[in-house]
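quick one if you have a minute, typing this from the bus. below you get a single protein, a line of residues and a line of whole numbers that encode the local backbone shape. could you go over both lines and see whether the tokens make sense for that sequence. anything you notice is useful, everything is just below.
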Amino acid sequence: MMTAATQSRTLRYVSQNQYLLISRLFFCSETNPASHDAVETVFRIMSSSTSSNNLKQSLKSSGVFLSNDLIDKVLKRVRFSHANPLQALEFFNYTGNRKGFYHTPFSLDTMLYILGRSRMFEKIWDVLIDVKHKDRKSITPRTLMVVLAKVAKVCSVRQTVESFRKFKKLVPEFDTNCFNALLRTLCQEKSMTDARNVYHSLKHCFRPNLQTFNILLSGWKSAEEAEGFFEEMREMGVQPDVVSYNCLVDVYCKGREMEKAFKVVAKMRDEDLQPDVITYTSIIGGLGLAGQPDKARDVLKEMKEDGCYPDVAAYNAVIRNFCIAKRLGDAYSLMDEMESKGLNPNAITYNLLFRVFYWSNDLRSSWNLYGRMMDSRCLPNTQSCMFLIRLLRRQEKVEMALQLWNDMVEKGFGSYVLISDVLFDLLCDVGKLAEAEKCFLQMVEKGQKPSNVSFRRIKVLMELANKQDSLQNLSEKMALFGFAQCSEDGKFLIDS
């Protein structure tokens, strides 16, 4: 039999293990992956909370374990649903202040993204200072990029750099990786010129590496400037890789300096760097600009011989060359070849041909191409639809235009707003008010607001046709989008 002391120790041992088990369930995402229902429950509690205390009590009474995985998913839900950022911050702070709990870098970055989108920059720095004191390792170069991207979107380059300097006291290591994050942000949110100017002003504070130069080498328009930058790279003892050389090849190809581009490719091989599909795609584009589409097609064969197989982008580059040269038979032949190789033409491929047919006013070929596109289950993008609807509008093909619209509604592709403007113009021109009303209502049912211009035109025609009931129905639908308001006599007034 157990003594009283042994029983006490056993109970204490079991109690401690139960506590550890509950802690793991409560805090650890690996042992407790959050269910969809749990995420929705917490998101609903957070979204309806009226105060900090209300949030705490509701979360405690819900019985849901607030694991890392669940918090990650709730904040992701907030981000993509554009929910209240202050409620999200309350939730983030409450969960983060629990003893022994640490937010994941994903949760931190998502919370900062949500605040940055709402331009709550002071609260961003408050969050970062709190995290610094609790778990500095959570602040990564990616965190820096998230914050700087939001700052750069609405502030000047100088203010962005000032925000970058603040991170010196926040991140564990304020090093070249952080510098690269700043440069990449400036490339994306400002301009390559801004990024390069900042590089030259700060490069003495950091040690630029290969990634630094690869960020800055892309997008050059001047071969002379690119060469100078490439030389600086070598002077600093940084050995170029395939990405570096591809940037140089690209700038030569865009400048139609094909001889120089081929010399760079030869140099790559001398340094045992195998040209990749991006290298060859740049060459193909350059040959097209130089008016040599047949030679560009030969590059596809050379790629295969080098063990580098063309992708869709490479084929698109060759097809573009033949479209520019108005050699559509060769373009179609290449599409067939792509499919035989197991590569499906994408919307970009089809748009190259749609553009040619649009400018040549060739509706028959354009419509056949659309049929081929749908048969291959490649959904058109907005550009494809615009080429088609404008051509149909020009030739007043109402039934075909309505078929395109119905395909869009059924399969969910294209921009309803842009396409509907052209479609409503066509329907109103030919007096198809019933069809215009139907398309209008289909659009509203999808949660898409017809443009004010389109609504005004339909309104005028309905008034002339004395279709007051239909007009009132459409006006009420537009009122849901804040467009129309009702006057004292019951008539709908259109906002200017």
About this structure: The longest strand covers residues 484-486. The beta strands are 484-486, 492-494. The longest helix spans residues 4-27. Residues 415-496 form one domain.
